[in-house]
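MODEL INPUT / OUTPUT PAIR
PAIR INDEX: 1
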Amino acid sequence: MSGSCGADTPVREKWKARLSDKKARSIAAAITHVFRILSATLQEVFDESAYRRFLIRGKLNSSCRAYAMFLKEHEQERSRRARCC
């Protein structure tokens, strides 16, 4: 404690967090890694990665026609899968 505020109430010193540059970079790298994994997961969930792979495999540019072809192929694959129960 460093003094009083005038009403005989002690005043606390402000706590200043100080991180070394190395530790700050390490934390930033970890956060970046987590966001990259989250982004990749969401792209897989919403078929963005599958569509990108389809375009690369077919050497196509993204377009309405290419997306329609992707949806048709994707639906055919889903209908061929064996269903349990």
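PAIR INDEX: 2
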Amino acid sequence: MLNKEELDKISEAIRFAESNTSAEIRVYVAKHCKGAPLETAYKLFHKLKMNETDLRNGVIIYLSPSDHKAAIYADEGINSQINESDFWQDTLDIMLSYFRKELITEGICKGVGKVGEVIKSRFPVSENDINELDNEVIIEE
């Protein structure tokens, strides 16, 4: 699906986005999406214990390129701070526009960057910030 260089590029985008925020971003790439993508993202979010961050400020970007499906799920801490009603859908639409051109890595990086921009003002990085979740892309075989 994605080669090492592409995975490294996405992980670097996550690291960069998180360098300005205490929030946590994870990317999960599935071979196939079984069911509704948002429901799947929600289940994975909890399975990966992303709901256990101190400030409840985790975001998962879930996608299945082969099925042309994707979703973004954010924890309650972030959703309580996002006032733009269409933010998540707008971010998803940007990503999907890249996916339709087969630019999967670029689309993921754009989505990660957009999420990072909006959450850094709501969850600025603190002096004693620790990276609570791994920045590596999760690949489901």
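PAIR 2 NOTE: The chain has one domain: 4-140.
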